[in-house]
Amino acid sequence: CRFCNDNEYMMEYKDVRMMQSFLTEHGKIVARRVSGTCAKHQRKLTSALKCARQLALIGYVSNGN
Known about the structure:
By secondary structure, the protein is an all-alpha fold.
């Protein structure tokens, strides 16, 4: 897990660039087996992404072309 290996790497809903790397091009949250995160950090990541969506830092869907 990226978060287990590097304790300095913080997971915050305000870090939009980091959050974008865990979303697909359609706006879905990437599965744990694909992203390589452990179950504990996947749960934290999911709640952080949902918080960022609520605050309109990240969109619910892609801009669509």
